[in-house]
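pls design
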């Protein structure tokens, strides 16, 4: 009778990414209100950079689990390439002032606030797997 329900794999990660995206949208709106179009551009670019970086990280980790062998040098190469690409994009955004630097930094930090909001939402509404109906 007291059967525990399991959480579907990836459900928590999807909720965190959803909250991070919603936080980035709210931040972009606030940045537009405070800094005009430059604030909007900075926040939007920061959110896009971090979203692309997280997507690449998830893709790399998924592939790493499929690789077999004594060495995962390929995984490390992908991590370093993703880090270098992200650092280059951040440098270019700040160097050419494509947006307000503070708004850009805030956009880069949206996964942190998304994580906190996802944790709050999980305490209010926990994820549960759908029950099996074998009737």
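designed seq:
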């Amino acid at each position: 009778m007291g059967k525990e329900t399991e959480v579907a794999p990836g459900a928590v990660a999807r909720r965190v990414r959803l909250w991070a995206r919603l936080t980035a949208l709210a931040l972009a709106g606030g940045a537009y209100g405070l800094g005009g179009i430059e604030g909007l551009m900075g926040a939007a670019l920061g959110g896009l950079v971090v979203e692309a970086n997280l997507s690449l990280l998830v893709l790399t980790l998924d592939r790493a689990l499929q690789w077999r062998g004594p060495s995962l040098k390929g995984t490390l190469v992908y991590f370093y390439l993703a880090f270098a690409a992200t650092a280059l994009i951040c440098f270019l955004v700040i160097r050419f002032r494509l947006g307000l630097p503070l708004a850009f930094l805030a956009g880069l930090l949206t996964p942190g606030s998304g994580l906190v909001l996802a944790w709050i939402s999980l305490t209010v509404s926990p994820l549960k797997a759908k029950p099996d109906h074998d009737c």
